[in-house]
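Q: Now give one record:
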Amino acid sequence: MTKHVTPDKTTFTGASGNTLVSDVFGDRGVPVILLHGGGQTRHAWRATAAQLAQRGWTAYAIDQRGHGESAWVDNGAYTFEDFAQDVKAVAAELARRAGHKPAAIGASLGGISSMLAEGETMRDTGKNLLSSIVLVDITPRVDYEGVAKVQGFMRAHAKEGFATVEEAADAVAEYLPHRPRPKSNEGLKKNLRLSPDGRWRWHWDPRFMDSRKGFDPDRERMEQMLLGAARNLKIPTLLVRGGSSELVQEAHVQEFRELVPHAKYVDVGGARHMVAGDQNDDFASAVLDFLGGLHQSIATKS
C-alpha cells in the first residue's frame, strides 16, 4: 500500500520565460520528471510520484505550460515543439541541481514533449538530455479517430464550463463509464478552476485547443518529426500501452519497436488511454520494475 506523502512545491522557468509549477516527492534521490497529458494537471501523477519517492527517487510532477497552476503563455504558444522546449529547460535545471540527468515519464502530450526533447537533443548535440524515458500510451503515429474522441470531450465544455463540480463529475463519468466513480469530487476540483462568472472550467488555457485538429494542424509534418525523434532515442526506453487504448494500436507499437529496437514494452490490460488512472497499480509496477535496475545502476556509480 502506498503511504501518504505530502509533497513540497517548487517552480521552474520554461523556454518562454513561463513559470512551471511542480510538486516534489522525495528529496534525496535521482530526479524523475512526470509529465501529464493534454488537459490534465500534475495531480494525475500523485499516486505514482509517491511510490517513486518511496523507492528512492525524487519525483517532480509538473503542470505543463497553460495547465494547472503553471502560467498561460501570452502568445498562445502551445505547439508540441513549445512543450518540448520546456522539457529541455526543466531537464537541464534538474541536472544542474541534482548532479544527475533526470528520467522522464510522459503520458500522451507529456510523452510527445519528452520524446521530442530527447530526440532533438541527441540529434543536435550527440548527447542525451534524459537518463531514461517512459512513454505512456503514445507513439509517433496514433489512431486519429481515438484522438478525435479525446479532443471532443475536452472541447465539449471548454467554453461554457459547468454550473457545479458535480456537473463536471457527471460529464467525466459519462466519458469514462468503465472507471468506478470516486466517492469524493475533491480530486476532480484540482482539474477545475472557478471562473469570475461563478462557473467551473477545466484548469487549462482554452487556447491550447484552438489550433488542434487531430494532434496538430499539420499531421504529416508532426508524424515525421516524432518518427525522427523516436529513431534518436538511445537511452533506456519503456513503452506502456493501455490494453484497450483508443489511440495506440498494435500496429503503432510494432512500428515503434522497429524504430527503437532496445525499447521495452508493457501492455496494461483493462486500461484505456489514461493508463495510470485506469490501472494505477499495474502501471506503477511496470514503471518501478523498469526504473529499479536503472536507479541501482546510477546509485552504484554515484
Summary: The beta strands are 8-13, 19-25, 31-35, 58-62, 103-107, 132-136, 192-194, 200-202, 237-242, 264-268. Residues 280-301 form the longest helix (22 residues). Residues 297-302 have pLDDT under 50 and may be disordered.
